[in-house]
Amino acid sequence: MSSNNSGTNRALVPEAKAGLNRLKTEVASEIGLQNYENQDKENLSSRQNGSVGGYMVKHMIESYEQGLK
What is the largest CA-CA distance in the chain? Predict the structure, then answer.
């Protein structure tokens, strides 16, 4: 099975990168990972890194749903 993924994650809207980084830092702080933006992510567990991503998605969905009301 071949994949078109070149191994890099690219934002569909490059201008959104700063906002996503702010959200990532905010979410990490909420779940107890202080100074996340300066940490070596390789030294964090998969669970910790995955939690940040999972909560980011949760926040984005909640924000979208609020916009529908």
Answer: 42
Judge whether 40 and 16 are in contact, CB under 8 Å.
Answer: no
Q: Of the candidates 9, 16, 50, 10, which has an alpha carbon nearest to the alpha carbon of residue 33?
A: 50
Q: Which residue has the tokens 């940490």?
A: 39
pLDDT attached to residue 1 = 46
Q: pTM score, two decimals?
A: 0.72
How far is it, in rounded angstroms, from Cα 31 to Cα 51?
A: 8
Please report the pLDDT score of residue 51 as a whole number: 94
- pLDDT at residue 5 greater than cutoff 70: no
Taking Cα atoms as reference points, which of 19, 23, 26, 24 lies closest to residue 49? 24
In angstroms, the CA 24 to CA 65 distance is: 19
